[in-house]
Design a protein that fits this description.
Layout lengths: L16 H17 L3 H6 L1 H23 L10 H4 L6 H14 L1
Length: 101
Amino acid sequence: MAQDIRFPFPLLYPLRATPLLLVLVTAAFDALLLTNLLVAIIAVAAIGIFSLWFARYAFAVFDRTVEGFPDPPALEYETITPFTDLRPVQLAVLAGLGVFV
């Protein structure tokens, strides 16, 4: 069985600087916002925006990986703008429908 040289350690991919930073910042921000019930109610929109940014970057990582590049894309404004590509929005709508239905 041939081994793909482009991805010697595929499970270490999320531990690179940019994906790890995005995961840690999103998790810390969500944890800080959920410490108080009133703040949590007000911050639902902010958590939704961060989730859309996270999903948008995840789709960018997936697209770049499918194209054969082993390194993660740069975390730029164009990469995480949630309304340039509708896949994260569709994912959020489906998740919302799953919660409410």
